[in-house]
Amino acid sequence: MTKENAIKLFQDQHVRVHWNNDNEKWYFSIVDVIGLLTNSVNPNAYWRKLKERIKKEGNETVTNCHGLKMMAADGKMRMTDVVDTEQLLRLIQSIPSPNAEPFKVWLAKVGYERIEETEDPELAFDRAMETYLKKGSEYAILTDEITKAWAGFTTKEYKKFKNLKKENLRDNMTNLELVLNMLAEATT
Hints:
There is one protein chain. By secondary structure, the chain is of the alpha+beta class. It folds into 2 domains: about 5-100; about 135-185, no CATH class. The chain is about 55% helix and about 20% strand. The chain has helices at about 30-40, 45-55, 60-65, 85-95, 100-120, 120-135, 135-150, 155-160, 175-185, and strands spanning about 5-10, 15-20, 25-30, 65-70, 75-85. It has a 5-stranded antiparallel β-sheet. The longest helix has 19 residues, at about 100-120. The chain is elongated, with a radius of gyration of 24 Å.
């Protein structure tokens, strides 16, 4: 399927999604997500009841969701309520289900971290570095490709060319080499 209309698989269950090029957002079928998180035999009925309840709570998700034609199980294009990612995460908070609990725990953790980062911005940098280091092998491959693109050497070959053993390649680059490397990284 194209990026515009796709089906995302979550543990062998389907969630219909739509990519909107104008606002560059994914839209998710609410009944598909509800079916996934609640194991309801009738996700449409569950959504109707949930809509009533969350409207009473003052949740704006229902007001802000809209319908899109999406491929139904019978192969026909039918209107279905959809939400973007932010609205989806808010909606999940209102679903009382053990399957929704991991999302709720994650949202609480991320929310708490953002509050901490507001109080101590250095935490945001520390977390970003931690994520960067976890993805070290992916970055190592990318760095290797970037170096090869501008220098004609892999990182290992370039270190050998400069007679470096354990020293950091960047620490031993000229200003021109650093600029070329930064330009290649920015371009990538």
